Structures are given as structure tokens and as C-alpha cells.
């Protein structure tokens, strides 16, 4: 006998995979209802972002002179941050968006943040294909370590986005300001990670203790893992860049492992907070 209304968190999502697929299909239909471009928006937004940043930083600020294949370097970081930003933001808003369902029937509430992350992954993979093609054109021939780096980077971002989405999604039910904080976090995270610039420039300017704080950001590790996976091989794997800094941190795998642990901790904390508050969702909504 199981007490009604008490679930097992994310384990229930695994058992109800069919229901998860239904929610994902519903979200995709609602999102693109009446849209002319439909899934093509998965390409339009990152293309515009890439164009603006490449012209502003690559051309005007001459980043392409100091970073070989700067276009691939830039797009690898944009792909990571788009996945994180969309997954985190939509997971935060998912409970509010699905209030009619939550008020009518009981089903594992975690289904909604997970479905939002799933939709973000659906948008992520077309961008990844573009990144793969660009990397191959630039001369990229991956090694096993580089492929593994891409997998680890993806897991870091997915767990971090879901963990924060569960945490802020629960808070957003009670305080609508939470989703506004999410937008600020995503904006700051884009500039606080080596997406538009190289990590060596940061290391040269920050004091040692603040540099460790910078590296402790899981998104920093995820972006660098994607750079190592898709950009580094296409540059001929040089020891130094033209500006004299190393292209990839020497402790990349140690930082990546730490980021994986931090993301897992965030996921566990987010799940615990979500389960603690989910019993009041229907009442508050």
C-alpha cells in the first residue's frame, strides 16, 4: 500500500517515461503553435547570438587574431550556455505553466522540470550538429578523450540546470521574483564563463583565491570541456596561443570532475527542497 500523493522524486519520472514523453510533446506543440519557422528557431537564435558576438568581439576587438578558429571556439561556448539558460529558465517556470494540471490531478511534479530540460535538449542537439560540422571543416579529428570531454560537459550542464530548475521552480511557486533572478543568473553566467574570451585572460587578472572561485563554477568547466572536445583538435592542439596563454587548462580533468560533483550536489539539494515544498503547490497555485 502506498500513501496517495507521496512520490519518490526523480525515480518516479524514470518509471513514468511514457507520461514524460506526452508532456514533452505537449510542450513542443504549445511552443510552436502558430509558428511559421517551428523548430528552425533552434538555429535562428544561436545564429544571431553568434553573429553579434563574433562581429563585436572577433572583428572589432580582434579576438580572432589571438584565438585560432575563434568562430568554433565562440559557438562551442554559446551552445553550452544556450542549453543551460533554456533548461534552467524553463524548468523554473514549468510548475507555473502547468498549474491547471497540478490543480486537477496528482502526478509526480518533477515531471515538469524534467520535461522542460528534455525540450531544451531537443533544441540543443541541432545546434550540436552545426558545431560538429564547423569543427570538421576546421580540421577537427576527435580523440577518445575529446569525445569523453563532450559527454562530461553535457552531463555537468544537464544536472546543474535541472538541480537549479527544481530549486528555483519550487521557490517560484511562492515568490514570482525567482524567475527574474534566473534571467539575471543566466546573463551573468554567460560573461562569468570563458564563452567569449579565453580562460588565460582571466587567470592573468584575478588574484589566486578568486581564480579558484572562478574555476569552481561548473559552467566554466563545462565550457572548457566543450572547447577541448570541439575546438582544440581543429587548431592543431598548440601548446600556446598567439597571446602566450595555454589554450586549455592543465587541470581540466580535475576541474571537470569537481564540476560534476558540484552539479550532482546541486541536483540533490534541488530535489530535496522541491520535495519539501511540493505538497503546497496546488494550494499556492
Automatic annotation (TrEMBL):
Q: Which superkingdom is the protein from? A: Bacteria
UniProt KW Magnesium keyword: no
* ABC transmembrane type-2 domain mapped to chain residues: 37-277
TM annotation in the entry: 43-63, 70-91, 111-135, 147-175, 181-202, 209-232, 252-274
Sorted alphabetically, the Gene Ontology cellular component annotations on this record are: plasma membrane
Membrane topology annotation = Multi-pass membrane protein
Q: Does the keyword Transport apply?
A: yes
Q: Where in the cell is it found?
A: Cell inner membrane; Cell membrane
Task: Give the molecular function GO annotations.
Answer: ABC-type transporter activity
Q: Which UniProt keywords apply?
A: Cell inner membrane, Cell membrane, Membrane, Transmembrane, Transmembrane helix, Transport
Q: Which GO terms describe its biological process?
A: lipopolysaccharide transport
Sequence similarity: Belongs to the ABC-2 integral membrane protein family.
This protein's name: Transport permease protein
What species was this sequence derived from?
Antribacter soli
Amino acid at each position: 500500500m502506498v500513501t496517495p500523493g507521496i512520490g519518490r522524486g526523480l525515480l518516479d519520472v524514470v518509471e513514468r517515461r511514457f507520461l514524460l514523453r506526452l508532456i514533452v510533446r505537449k510542450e513542443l506543440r504549445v511552443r510552436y503553435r502558430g509558428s511559421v519557422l517551428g523548430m528552425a528557431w533552434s538555429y535562428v537564435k544561436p545564429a544571431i547570438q553568434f553573429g553579434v558576438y563574433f562581429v563585436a568581439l572577433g572583428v572589432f576587438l580582434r579576438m580572432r587574431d589571438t584565438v585560432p578558429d575563434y568562430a568554433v571556439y565562440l559557438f562551442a561556448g554559446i551552445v553550452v550556455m544556450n542549453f543551460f539558460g533554456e533548461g534552467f529558465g524553463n524548468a523554473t517556470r514549468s510548475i507555473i505553466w502547468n498549474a491547471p494540471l497540478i490543480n486537477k490531478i496528482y502526478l509526480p511534479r518533477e515531471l515538469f522540470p524534467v520535461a522542460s530540460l528534455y525540450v531544451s535538449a531537443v533544441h540543443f542537439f541541432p545546434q550540436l550538429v552545426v558545431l560538429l560540422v564547423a569543427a570538421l571543416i576546421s580540421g577537427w579529428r576527435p580523440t577518445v578523450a575529446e569525445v569523453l570531454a563532450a559527454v562530461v560537459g553535457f552531463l555537468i550542464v544537464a544536472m546543474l540546470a535541472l538541480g537549479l530548475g527544481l530549486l528555483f521552480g519550487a521557490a517560484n511557486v511562492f515568490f514570482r521574483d525567482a524567475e527574474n533572478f534566473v534571467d539575471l543568473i543566466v546573463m551573468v553566467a554567460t560573461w562569468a564563463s570563458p564563452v567569449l574570451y579565453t580562460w588565460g585572460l582571466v587567470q592573468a587578472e584575478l588574484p589566486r583565491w578568486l581564480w579558484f572561485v572562478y574555476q569552481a563554477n561548473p559552467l566554466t568547466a563545462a565550457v572548457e570541456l566543450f572547447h577541448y572536445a570541439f575546438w582544440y583538435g581543429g587548431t592543431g592542439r598548440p601548446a600556446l596561443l598567439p597571446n602566450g596563454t595555454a589554450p586549455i587548462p592543465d587541470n581540466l580533468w580535475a576541474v571537470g570532475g569537481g564540476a560534476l560533483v558540484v552539479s550532482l550536489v546541486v541536483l540533490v539539494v534541488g530535489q530535496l527542497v522541491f520535495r519539501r515544498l511540493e505538497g503546497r503547490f496546488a494550494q499556492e497555485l
